[in-house]
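re the bet — no i am not wrong, look at it urself. input seq straight from the record:
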Amino acid sequence: MFDERLTINTERLTLRPFGPRDARHVRAIIDDGAHTTALPPGAPGHPAGISQWLSQGVHELWRSGQGIHLGMWARDTVVGSISVFKAQWGAGTAEVGYGVHPAHRRRGYATEAVRGLTGRLLGEGVLRRVELRANSDNAASLRVAEKAGFLREGLLRGAGFEDDGPHDLVVFGMLKGDGAAFAEHRLTSDRLVLRRFSRRDAFDVVDAVRNDPEIARWMTWAAGYTLERALEWCTRLAHASGQGYGGNFAIEPKDGGRLAGAIGVQREDHERGDAEVGYWISPWARRRGYAVEATQMITAHLFSLGFHRVHLLAATGNHASQAVARRAGFIEEGILRQALPVPGGRADAVVFSILNGENSWQ
């Protein structure tokens, strides 16, 4: 049976069970008319049913031993919900499903939640297989499954039913150990090793974040950064990337010394063959070309795996990050208005990209 207090923290979300204290948030969703998509199946459509549902109804799935409903929280807002159901403990299998409030879609919350929950269930050995089903004509859900790293396994004809009639369902699956090859892979160059984060990196991470005005200027997560948060990142969050080719990697100089920074792959679109990279460099490792070298290493590897395009974003005021992109061979494409959250608000972003075949340094 799942832990009734199951809580999962991802980069932007907290996934946790609903409780009586959430009444006003559920009421707001019902008032918006979004309860059929943002709340789990069986949620009330009228405020009169909220109290009973939060104390009893939403927990029936957990009491049955077959799953659990979790809310998707972005800070103090419920942006959706995600559920595990049809758990078969003897077989080690279960299915996941989710819904996002219409006002919070197109922000990657569903993919992040699916990755976080699936990574916990498979990573801790609770399950060996997680399944996800989506209507064959629901392009958004199909993309979520693929971006979360699930493999498309087949089509169930007429297996789904909506208000407008039957729908074919696409079946996706993820097995324990899927995608571990890249997550465990060590990329090396003449000077650098890109590897998974470990507990020992936490002290260097917190030192870099606490004492550097540049990181504090551009990274929204840097405010009030603590050793506890660094430990959580290095031992758990940095590893919860699901099956895709992406993930977060520590940048380590081959000649030793302290952690040089981090680089990650995110927002992979396997249908388009496009992925985004991002990086930060520790204060003591700057002006040595490490960010450029690490970006080229990750990009070359993505191209070798079949991606066609790699892009990155840099705030218009972040001239150092823009210089890294240019030196790594990326081409400036334009400005995305208010595309990046920064401390105190949002910033316009310069978008850079490189296509497979343009990388003369590979």
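see?? The domain at 180-355 is CATH 3.40.630.30 (Aminopeptidase). told u. also The chain is about 30% helix and 35% strand. so pay up
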